[in-house]
Amino acid sequence: MAQYGNFAYIYDQLMDDVDYEKWVDHIENLIKLNNIKVKNILELACGTGNITIPLTRRGYDIAGIDISEEMLDVAYNKSIEENTTLVLLEQDIVELDFDIYDLDCVLCACDGFNYITSIEDLDKVFTKVHQQLKDGGIFVFDISSHFKLKNILGNNFMGQSRKDLSYMWTNYYDDQIQLLEMELDFFVKIDADDDEEDNLYEKYSEVHLQRAHKEEEIIKLLEKVGFEDIKSFGDFELENVKEDSQRVFFTAIK
Ligand SMILES: C[S@@+](CC[C@H](N)C(=O)[O-])C[C@H]1O[C@@H](n2cnc3c(N)ncnc32)[C@H](O)[C@@H]1O
């Protein structure tokens, strides 16, 4: 069962409470804090373009890569509506293969790296990112924290019933292997022509797997592949990561 297949088409509805402009502000603040001038950005796991499109609006040259054809399809359609041109590539970032080197910035926002479920694969991604950046270029990314996957999402059940969309989200977490399995069942209202069929819903299911990376594992790996001046921040603050931070941002310089 593919991750982000049909789910792609309701992803933005489910994320409608996320303030992406604030997210992009924070990314820009992290870049400024490092005194790096950025014009071009390669965004990994760009999804439906929720970070990509605001960055384009702010004047950056940006290319987005994602493994899900469906997520990229949504991103592409949104960019057409916005009259923006996005460069989008369907690729597994573990096998990252991008023509342009000497990049100013590589970015990965909102859990992209939690979907890289082994340290060996994360090592491959970080090594490739290091190769793609120019000397002095910046790598910016964030992950859901080990605390969040273990204590907030892990072994928890969540659900929501909305007018046109309902979902059930059942999670299983194993701290030995640091993996969170998420079973997602969602029910999407079918557009009906007559009242009789007005209450028909289509059910889709997906299983997602995320790894609860620890802050120290990430820092060690960044150092190993050659990054310098590695910094980490908790949530959307320019402050150290706390024990209960749910999101951890990293910056690292080539
Ligand atoms: C939670 S979504 C985040 C999307 C986007 N960054 C955002 O902020 O809305 C995670 C994304 O990671 C992508 N992804 C997961 N594993 C991937 C891989 N190995 N290579 C490329 N993209 C991947 C998924 O397809 C999905 O679009």
From TrEMBL:
Source organism superkingdom: Bacteria
One matching Pfam family: Methyltransf_25
Domain Methyltransferase per the UniProt entry, residue ranges: 41-137
Entries under Gene3D superfamilies matching the protein: S-adenosyl-L-methionine-dependent methyltransferases, Vaccinia Virus protein VP39
Keywords associated with the record: Methyltransferase, Transferase
Entry's Gene Ontology molecular function annotations: methyltransferase activity
UniProt record, GO biological process: methylation
Family annotation (InterPro entries): Methyltransf_25, SAM-dependent_MTases_sf
CDD domains tied to this protein: AdoMet_MTases
Protein name: Methyltransferase domain-containing protein
